[in-house]
Every structure is written in structure tokens, then in C-alpha cells.
Amino acid sequence: MSQVTLDIATLDDLPQIVAIYNSTIAGRMVTADLEPVSVDSRLPWFHAHNAERRPLWVVREQQRVIAWVSLSDFYGRPAYNGTAEVSIYLAEDCRGRGMGRQLLQQIQALAPQYGVENLLGFIFGHNAPSLALFERQGFSQWAHFPRVAVLDGVHRDLIILGKALTPSN
Description:
- It is a single chain.
- The protein is α+β, with helices and mostly antiparallel strands and about 170 residues long.
- It is about 20% helix and about 35% strand.
- A 7-stranded mixed beta sheet has the order 1-2-3-4-5-7-6, sandwiched between helices.
- It has a domain of about 120 residues: 3-Layer(aba) Sandwich (Aminopeptidase).
- The longest helix is centred in the middle third of the chain and has 12 residues.
């Protein structure tokens, strides 16, 4: 696979971003949403991202958005500004090709320029592929929340994997 290029998302990309997100809901592996979301409902989320501090990127292939990546605030207090959650979502036909690994590597390299010292991944405990992806990139378990989600009547754990990108002082 050739090197993927990240572009800052535009509002015109939001329908494709939402379509990729919605494609993951039925599998019950990636998101705690239980029903598809609308483009309108994602507008506040979209506008919470900005190119200076918490970017939302897309990967395009021939004008089509095939993946998106975001950095989001971990917790809404200033002391936590150096920690961000990374989210990576791939179009169905792009999964299993190594793109997630490339994107996670790029984000680790880019994150410090956005003031990010610690990256977090919020991953369901039963999502073995995503857990393995992050662990292969040096992330380790920082938190385990047992049975915090219920998906189709099944209680699921949430694992938070973290990685310090800069040395602690």
C-alpha cells in the first residue's frame, strides 16, 4: 500500500465521514452508537475540531473519502489539554490493508505539533483487531471499564489504551 495522505476535513466531507462511521455501527465492534447518525447530528462534533489544535483529517482516493482520523479532547478541563483521544475509521473496502497502521503511525508523529503529549484509544474489549493495532504501536492499557456498554443485550468492556509521546517531567 502506498503512503496515505492526510487532508484537513471540510464540511463537504462530512456526509462521507458520517457514512464511514455509520458503516461500523451494525458490527458492534467500534462504536457505542446503536443506530445510524445523521449528518446534521454530527455538525457540533465536526465544528469541535479545528486545524490548529484538534484536527479532523480525511484520506481521499480519487475524490472519495476512504478514511478519517480525529484528535479529540480527552476531558474538558485545561489541565488535560496535552492528552487527546485518537479515532480512526476506514471505509469497509479499505479495512485489513494496513491503512490503520499507517494512519496511527502518522498521527503519533503529528500529534506533538498540536500540543498532544499523550494519545488515547477508546476500544471495546472484544475488538481484538483494534486492540492489537494499538498495542503493536506501543500503546498499553491505561484503563479498563468492565461492562460499561450494552450492545444488543450483551455487556461490553471499554479499554483505554494510552501512549506517552513526550518524556514526562
